[in-house]
Amino acid sequence: MARFLDALGRLCVRRRRAVFELWAVVMLGAGVLGIVYGGMFVQQSTLPGTETQRAIDTLSQDFPAMTGPTATVVFHETPQAAPADWRVALTIGRSIENIGKMKRVAFVENPYVPGMGGLKDDNAVVVRLNFTGTMSEVGHADLDALNRAVEPARMAGVEVKFGGIVAMILNQPKGGPQEGVGIALALVVLLLAFGSYLAAGIPILVSMCGMAVAYSLIHFSASLFQIAPTAPMVAAMLGIGAGIDYALFIVTRYRQQLAEGDDVETAVGHAMAHSGHAVVFAGGTVVFAICGLFLSGIEFIGRIGIATALAVAIMVAAALTLLPAILGALGDRIDRYRLPRVRPDRSSRRWTAWGRHVDRHAWPYAIVATLVLLALSVPTLSLRFGVMADSMSSPKMEARQAYEIVAREFGAGHYSPFVIVAKVPGEEKRVKPKRVVPTVDGREGLTGLTGPAVAEPSPPPRQALPKGAPDPDKKPDKDAVLVAQELQTRVSEVPGVVSVGEPVVTGKTAILQVVPRDAPHAESTTDLVHHLRDVEIRAVRDANPGTEIYLGGENPAIIDIAATVGDRMLTVVVAVVVVALLLLVIAFRSVVVPVKAALMNLLSIGASFGVVTAVFQWGWGIELLGVDQAIPIMSFIPLFMFALIFGLSMDYEVFLLSRIKEEYERTGDPHESVVTGIGATARLITSAALIMIFVFASFVPQPDPMVKMMALGLAVAVAMDATIVRLVLVPALMSLLGHANWWWPGRSRPVPPPPEPEPEPAAEQLELELTT
């Protein structure tokens, strides 16, 4: 590998013009794909193997219009207009009719029509709608059409807020000044690390070129696959930080080789052979660790992992090709435009002294560092998984504002009711009913749903069966009606249930809407879902053999995700750890070093989990992050953090151990090699960690709570890993283990080089000594 990288670096120096042209073509081509053919970032529309998906599949047979992506539209009073005014109510009704006429809308509630669902009081009107198709088919054109549809209400002075899928479209990931602040702070760190404006700008330039390609390709992939809105943010966080760090390591080694007298091409080759080798293994570890997210069993989590891994892989490619070409173009002018009074090389002596100090006091430092990490990990014991919901969003987000209006006017549970779908066994028989018109009361959640089925005289023409209503030719089956009534009776008596809507029965399928008492993200709501599934629905199912009964909706869907992630968590952890161990074994030909590295990484991950739990779940200082309430940890955040942190921790482990091993093989001294390795890499690791911390922290102001959690967790993890772990715990343990660190079957210890012979004394000095 080292020989190949040496040759690659030299080739990029000699053919640098071709490398620049190739990267320009790649950036231009990726940019065209992203801008012209880029898709919409959306949440996953299917959850294979879950009860929610089974509810959707059952519902699609008799209520196909109720299975598409959902949105919530809230009409709220203002000082200029209130729904209680009949003239204002008329404009709201006209807006609802306009929504129903939209080509892509399959069904919409209407509280002004009896039996058509929705919520209405003197201050607010709430309707829910279903789009046709899947989430990936909903785009800006639908949002524009929806905005036009509600224009009559807005013109009358009514405030209109969107929630659900529409809110997600409104909050597509966008870059902002905060990311620029992170890059600016990274530039400051690079200036202090290199002491040269020119050298400091190179890692920034390389990472920006790589990120431009990565983001464009991720945006283009959104047109082919369903990619969550969080994906580009996570990819940017890790990609920019990793890209700057990888370039930093190679540029540092290149400058050292120039200082030792190498010519430009030789210096690039040696830098690639040593630091480039570490970049390949560090980046490969990150990529494989993140790809382990595919084992989570949740498709959108795996795709976020793939997007992030793509960004890191492109950063590695940029560091191994574009960076050597840039270094070849600059040559020995890289140290021009120096920063006055900054002498970064002087810090090596101080770090060498620190390494020797830790080596002499290894036991105390190992014990104290371990205790600190364990103490920070304590809050993890109380970690509680929660759900993604509009009620957890930032108060600045429109979806949160829509939720607040509904919660204040009607109750928190009305924003996201559950849906029970029941289907009795047997062959359906189509019977032409007489004067029976099923109507729909409302629906909510991931699938859509609910409302009573009533027999009444045929409505006048203007109240004809709405688009998306159940098929009136399907007569309600008696057994389905009895099952639905039994469900309604049992569920309505459960504590925590506010109301159960009248069942809608078409053929052998029945649906009921269940309104919980508490907010979507409340622990009591999650407990209610489990109770309904495990007790009430099971009892009805057991009493009616062959009947399929499922609980669906938005909250149950997210709870299913949490359950799936929890079931697969151990699989992901084991897979990531095993792959990382194999890569470290290949890189260092050691058994003890990889095992020790994995244990240290698990300690730092536990500590970062503890900090995130204390801040978000316990509420310690949460207001400083722009969040107005303590919130549970979203179910897949720990899974993401584990994969990302484990991969990032291996970055610093690889760079530190590569230099220690180099010295150990040269001297055969396990203690002095650790001291030398710390002195040579500590400044580099500290600078790289500061860059990562600044880049991650720059994403904390993002309004999305998921991004906040991940940004804070990654920043804390990197801070602890680069200080407590890499500069205290690792050197202390390596000093205690000595030669055992590098044990490998069949390999002998390296032989120290013979001491240099003392120079022979001059003849006059020898004669003088003999005389005396």
From TrEMBL:
SUPFAM superfamilies: Multidrug efflux transporter AcrB transmembrane domain. Residues 204-329 form the SSD domain. Pfam families: MMPL (PF03176). It is found in: Cell membrane. Keywords: Cell membrane, Membrane, Transmembrane, Transmembrane helix. Its main location: membrane. The chain crosses the membrane at residues 20-42, 183-215, 227-251, 271-295, 307-330, 362-387, 569-592, 598-618, 630-650, 680-700, 712-734. It is a multi-pass membrane protein. Residues 441-477, 749-772 are annotated as: Disordered. InterPro entries: MMPL_dom (IPR004869), Mycobact_MmpL (IPR050545), SSD (IPR000731). Residues 762-772 have a biased composition (Low complexity). This is MMPL family transporter. It comes from Actinomadura monticuli.
